[in-house]
Amino acid sequence: MIELGPNRYGKSGIRLVKVVRGEERHQVRDLTVSVALEGEFDAAHVEGDNSAVVATDTMKNTVYAFAREHLVGPVESFGLVLARHFAAFDQCESARVSIDEHRWVRMPTDDGEAPDAFLRSADFTRTATVTATSDGVAIEAGIRDLAVMKTGRSAFRGFPRDDYTTLPEADDRIMATMLSASWRYGEAVHGASFDELFDAIGETILDAFADHDSASVQASIWVVGRAVLERHPEVDEIRMTLPNLHHWLVDLSPFGQPNEGEIFVATREPFGLIEATVRRGE
User: How far apart are the C-alpha atoms of 122 and 145, rounded to whole Å?
Assistant: First the structure.
């Protein structure tokens, strides 16, 4: 017997820029939005019957049309409006809206910050994912590709060694990563300020990352994730991805020079990839 398994469809990579034109200053909102639906869409696959299929072009148009009125605050709130709209279709069991917000900062000038000129900031991407079902909504927020580094208090020792192990043990090494984190809010968060929460959780992540002695990248994820849950009761769990971007000490002995942890070569590939979820227990 052949049958259709789990399936979903939607529109990805919807690019949206909104300019908020204040009397004295402008604001830029730059988003990439994706919509995904699950539900009673089997007939479209197995029978070629599109009567239940909301066109992905309609999804794109809805995002643009809703942006004028509803993109006035945090991206989580915009995602909530969109997810609830799509979940209201009878044939839709689940609607997931994922948003990346790309940061623009005001261009500095001799007279101060420009009111209507901006620089694209590449320090990180703010993310939000809202999933709406008949049972309610789930809200996740996060950051992606935040470049951070520890130049001290980072070690890696005591790992297994075999015939193929060449990595020396390290008591004090560079730990650099492009940190990505996504945290899930509990039910009590829906009346909260998502912007304030995002800023506060981001500060906790940076504080915990900076102020600990790391035994490994795995241990650092635990330290940072635990700090977020301890300080922010609104968060039920946090998932973190930390690629280990290696910095290898350069051998300067051929040039008659010492190298006491000063000169490194930074590599991007291959890299270690460490991922973990820290969550509240039962």
Answer: 9
Q: What 3-state class would DSSP assign to 31? A: strand
Q: Say if CB 75 and CB 51 are below 8 A apart.
A: no
Q: Would you say the C-alpha torsion 226, 229, 232, 233 has a positive or negative sign?
A: negative
Tokens 């035994």 found at: 215
Whose CA is closest to 132, among 36, 31, 33?
36
pLDDT digits 0-9 by tens, 222-276: 999 999 999 999 999 999 999 999 999 999 999 999 999 999 999 999 999 999 9
Q: CB-based burial of residue 157 (10 Å sphere; 0-12 exposed, 13-18 middle, 19+ buried)?
A: exposed
The total of other beta-carbon atoms located within 10 Å of residue 11's CB is 20
Amino acid making up residue 233: P
DSSP 134-196: TTEEEEEEEEEEEEEEESSSB-B------TT--PPPBSS--EEEEEEEEEEE-GGGGGS-HHH
Signed CA dihedral, 82, 83, 88, 92: sign only:
positive
CB atoms within 10 A of CB 183: 27
Residues catalogued as catalytic: 11, 56, 246
**Residue 214 carries which DSSP code?**
B
Cα(76)–Cα(61) distance, rounded to whole angstroms? 19
Question: Which helix (H) or strand (E) element contains residue 243?
Answer: strand 235-244
Residue 218: what residue type? Q
Does the global pTM surpass 0.90? yes
**Residue among 33, 249, 233 at smallest CA distance from 126:** 33
